[in-house]
């Protein structure tokens, strides 16, 4: 059987149709629509494939416009917006069923020295000191909605360990921050482009959910509607997605049916390797049938 990690790497390895045109398949991870992290990772992979000079991605700014259909491929068109002396910019448009579902701009830079500083990594227990989340009792699992059952029963490519676990089925009200250790569950190759695409995929997990903490709600609940609206990601220093990384997330504001969340990603040595930000839709609706679930958002 193909492992979840191999499936994810294949998912991020797009089919090249033309010089600037790529096609990617989708993977059902238990969500009703295509997982936002998948589109982020695939779009970054497409942009990286059009670079002529060895330049590293340093930022990505994206908007989610329509829900993606899991059953059909996504076509990515890359506009080679600029290749300057030390920076390159690419604009990527994702198309499905003849409509734009997503677009982003990604910027790349040749390596150069400069002044450095960073915020210190929070003092938290290491991943080896945190027990993996226990499986739900069978009787509790059986009472959950089908879509939630599919989400919880999947074997994902990443392992997550929460410093402050929360009961998502009966969520308490608590301050809007969390720390999550994560890593790919298998060792993979050394290509930095692959590890950046993998982090783009993983950066969409747990981010927006942090904005629900003060309200005592969860995307597991049938009357909660959540969806990513935009996503920004900055790469600061080299890293490996198959080694433990700490995702330190907070949510400074929620208003108007939207929540904002920010994340800092550190490696085990305490180096800040990436930062993220996302605003998303968060609604509590009267009719559970009208809610669109995007687990992990």
TrEMBL record:
What Pfam families does the record point to? Answer: 4HBT_3, Acyl_CoA_thio
**The Acyl-CoA thioesterase-like N-terminal HotDog domain covers which part of the protein?**
33-109
Keyword Magnesium assigned to the entry: answer is no
In this chain the Acyl-CoA thioesterase 2 C-terminal domain maps to 177-281
What CDD domains does UniProt report for this protein, alphabetically? Answer: Thioesterase_II_repeat1, Thioesterase_II_repeat2
Query: Keywords on this record?
Result: Hydrolase
- InterPro entries documented for this protein: Acyl-CoA_hotdog, Acyl_CoA_thio, HotDog_dom_sf, TesB_ACOT8-like_N, TesB_C
**Protein family (similarity comment):** Belongs to the C/M/P thioester hydrolase family.
Q: What is this protein called?
A: Acyl-CoA thioesterase II
Lineage of source species: Bacteria, Pseudomonadati, Pseudomonadota, Gammaproteobacteria, Lysobacterales
